[in-house]
């Protein structure tokens, strides 16, 4: 349904002849084993000057156009009933039921896996939090041990200096005896 448009101000699109709606071909494979048939009814042929265009020019409304179209349909045939009847004869509900059941089962399995992943993620977060607390505790213990070692080292150096200052001969003999035991 292509319409030619011009850029001139005040001109309207001139509708061209419309083609019937293309239904899926029976040559293409479908999800069902039976081919989809075409609807036997085709829209009425329109003349080169479109009904819509002539209705617009004459000031007709949408209901006028609809009445004119419906008057061209073959009498006594309801398109929706006809389409519904054809779908019921072509459509196999068992295949649809099986695929819906399979989809529901797959969806349930997917939801279970998502819940399992959420539980595992929560467990991992708890473990990370616990590990972080342990790490922080260990870091503070290491810092405390370093400060204790530094304090002890300074105390030992001060005691050595005082012992060497007070009695250098005794300090030297003690140092020699300590090295001789090694």
Quaternary form: single chain
Shape: rod-shaped
Average pLDDT score: 75
Structural category is mainly alpha
Gyration radius from CA atoms, angstroms: 47 Å
- In what range is the share of β-strand residues? under 5%
Number of strands: 2
Strand count, sense and closure of the main sheet?
Answer: 2 strands, antiparallel
- The H/E string reads EEHHHHH
Terminal Cα separation, in Å? 106 Å
Count the helices. How many? 5
**Unreliable residue stretches:** 28-32, 49-58
Indicate the percent of residues in helices.
55-70%
Strand arrangement, largest sheet? Answer: 1-2
What can be said about this structure in brief?
The protein is an all-alpha fold and 182 residues long. 65% of the residues lie in helices and 2% in strands. This is Biogenesis of lysosome-related organelles complex 1 subunit KXD1.
């Amino acid at each position: 349904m292509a319409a030619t448009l011009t850029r001139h101000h005040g001109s309207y699109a001139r509708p061209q002849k419309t083609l019937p709606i293309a239904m899926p071909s029976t040559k293409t494979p479908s999800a069902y084993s039976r081919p989809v048939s075409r609807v036997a009814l085709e829209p009425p042929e329109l003349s080169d000057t479109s009904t819509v265009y002539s209705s617009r020019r004459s000031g007709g409304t949408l209901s006028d156009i609809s009445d004119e179209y419906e008057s061209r349909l073959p009498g006594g045939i309801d398109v929706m009933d006809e389409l519904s009847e054809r779908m019921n004869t072509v459509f196999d509900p068992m295949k649809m039921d099986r695929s819906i059941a399979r989809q529901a089962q797959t969806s349930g399995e997917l939801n279970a896996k998502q819940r399992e992943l959420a539980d595992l993620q929560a467990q991992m977060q708890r473990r990370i939090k616990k590990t972080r607390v342990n790490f922080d505790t260990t870091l503070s213990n290491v810092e405390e041990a370093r400060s204790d070692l530094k304090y002890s080292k300074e105390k030992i150096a001060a005691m050595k200096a005082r012992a060497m200052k007070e009695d250098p001969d005794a300090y030297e003999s003690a140092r020699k005896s300590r090295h001789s035991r090694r």
